[in-house]
Design goal:
Layout (H helix, E strand, L loop, with lengths): L1 H11 L1 H5 L6 H8 L5 H20 L53 E2 L2 E2 H5 L1 E4 H6 L22 H18 L3 E5 H4 L6 H19 L4 E6 L18 H20 L4 E4 L5 E2 L7 H22 L4 E4 L9 E2 L4 H10 L6 E6 H6 L4 H10 L3 E5 L18 H13 L8 E3 L10 H28 L1 H9 L6 H7 L5 H11 L9 H9 L3
Parallel strand pairs: 3-4, 3-12, 4-5, 6-8, 8-10, 10-11, 11-12
Antiparallel strand pairs: 1-2, 7-9
């Protein structure tokens, strides 16, 4: 029996032998008890407990970014040292470089098709993903706790994040950033308190920006707080509508104050779960009135930035009113707002709407509405908005073809509305992800330039439509060919001969530039 019990005990603690734990060392003392004097054993035991407590119970430092042990030079809690120690300023080293902290394809000042890469790209870092992303998802808790975080959402912590943001931008060599109001400053108990918090953080951001850095765009977070469960501009409760208007008013003001070049409306909850309890027409009318008021206020304060609508088909609502680029364009035309807004196209949202990013960009472009790109992608095997960094060279090339045809994006640009994977938890991963995303789009730009300079693909497309380069084709495209004229030609020509679409050749030509 004794032998059986001993065997069971050994089996129970087998994991401790394979994977030593701090308290496992206590078990070693049991074997020594018989042979050791009581005093020696007690001394041994006390030492073991002290070591164990040191390993297990020591509280983590609140600001490891300060390697000297403090968070700042005064009692304010602000850390003014270096956050990303050991990370150099990222430079271009060329395609042969094996350095993960260097650009291989993005050479900021290199000229492509008459414009520098920096001007084609106009890269921006998204504050909410880079500095507020936790790694949490619907099935798991946060996995990220950056060294400068203290676990709070205090004003002191918000200031520390803002300083980290600008050090990150400087080292990455990017001079634009994007933000939601509630991501950069804590929500207060009242609207007045929230505004005061935002003012304090924005004042610091203005100081840290200097003259070279500015927001690509700002926006208001009208989706997280419970008050917005039914939407903001489309909420059936007038108090929520008014609160959302006040929040947007303030967000436009601070974006203007910081020199922002655009302002984005993302209707995260502007939609419905069921039409049984929804007056869709009234909600759409309310949203139009909301946008009209935003246009009027923008002009009142002299904000010259572009107002952007960001289409998204679903998640979290069953149906959102800005489903895709075509839906948003139709909305703007219906309410006479087509000249006041452009679109911020997000590639992952395009996927969720059943389109490619290229399709959404082209739809926005041909409607004169392409204003900005949220550079990310989704996983085709996952049905939600995963916000991954774009790494697909083919997709990046198609994106850049649209951007080139658009003549660029200014005053918009490419915002990295993308986040690290849940399992990526090193500080350097923040840099690696952005470097890879920037290199991917830069490589896409180079490939798109090759395609345009070669001209073979464009020639193939022109050839497909060459029958319209005729006198009748010109009349059709000018709206001067009626059905009588077309019927006469159809009878004269007889059965038409339909040429090959040459899709495989088009794909071959495209791949030749990769």
């Amino acid at each position: 029996m004794v032998a059986m019990i001993g065997a069971a005990r050994r089996q129970r603690y087998i994991d401790y032998d394979q994977h030593p734990q701090p308290n496992a060392i206590l078990l070693l003392g049991l074997n020594e008890m018989i042979n050791m004097k009581a005093g020696k054993f007690l001394l041994f035991l006390l030492c073991v407990i002290a070591i164990s407590n040191t390993v297990i119970c020591e509280a983590p430092p609140t600001c490891p970014a300060d390697l000297d042990g403090g968070c700042g030079s005064d009692d304010s809690g602000e850390w003014e040292g270096e956050f990303f120690t050991g990370i150099p300023k990222i430079v271009y080293e060329g395609p042969k470089s094996k350095n993960p902290l260097a650009y291989k394809w993005y050479n900021a000042n290199e000229e492509i098709l008459g414009k520098s890469m920096k001007d084609w790209m106009r890269f921006s870092v998204a504050f909410w993903h880079t500095f507020r992303g936790t790694g949490g998802d619907p099935f798991g808790a946060a996995t990220k706790m950056w060294p400068w975080e203290d676990g709070t959402n205090s004003l002191a912590m918000a200031k520390r994040r803002m300083r980290a943001n600008f050090e990150f931008l400087e080292k990455l060599g990017v001079d634009r950033w994007c933000f939601h109001d509630r991501d950069i400053a804590p929500d207060g108990k009242t609207l007045e308190e929230s505004n005061a918090n935002l003012d304090e953080i924005v004042a610091l951001a203005k100081e840290l920006q200097g003259t070279k850095i500015r927001p690509l765009w700002g926006t208001a977070q009208l989706f997280l707080h419970p008050r917005y469960m039914h939407g903001g501009a489309t909420s059936p409760e007038i108090g929520v509508y008014a609160y959302a208007a006040a929040q947007v008013k303030k967000a436009i003001e601070v974006t203007h104050y910081l020199g922002g070049e655009n302002y984005v409306f993302w209707g995260g909850r502007e939609g419905y779960q069921t039409l049984l309890n929804t007056d869709m027409e009234r909600e759409l009318d309310h949203m139009a009135r909301f946008f009209e008021a935003a246009v009027a206020y923008k002009k009142k304060i002299g904000f010259k930035g572009t107002l952007l609508i960001e289409p998204k088909p679903q998640e979290p609502t069953k149906h959102q009113y800005d489903w895709d680029a075509a839906t948003a364009a139709n909305f703007l035309r219906k309410y006479g707002l087509i000249g006041e807004f452009k679109l911020n196209i997000e590639c992952n949202h395009a996927t969720l709407s059943g389109h490619s990013c290229h399709h959404e960009l082209e739809t926005a472009r041909i409607n004169g509405l392409l204003g900005n790109v949220d550079a990310n992608t989704g996983d085709p095997q996952i049905g939600w908005d995963t916000d991954q960094f774009l790494m697909d060279i083919n997709e990046a090339t198609l994106v850049m073809l649209s951007v080139i045809r658009n003549g660029g994006l200014a005053p918009g640009g490419f915002n990295f509305d993308a986040k690290l994977r849940r399992e990526s938890t090193d500080v350097e991963d923040l840099f690696i992800a952005h470097i890879a995303g920037m290199d991917t789009l830069a490589r896409g730009l180079r490939n798109a330039a090759k395609l345009i300079e070669d001209g073979s693909l464009e020639k193939l497309v022109r050839k497909r439509y060459q029958s319209f380069d005729s006198e009748l084709g010109a009349e059709i495209e000018a709206g001067k060919a009626d059905f009588d004229m077309l019927e006469k030609k159809a009878m004269e020509w007889g059965e038409p001969k339909v040429p090959s679409g040459k899709q495989e050749l088009a794909e071959m030509l495209f791949q030749s530039a990769m």
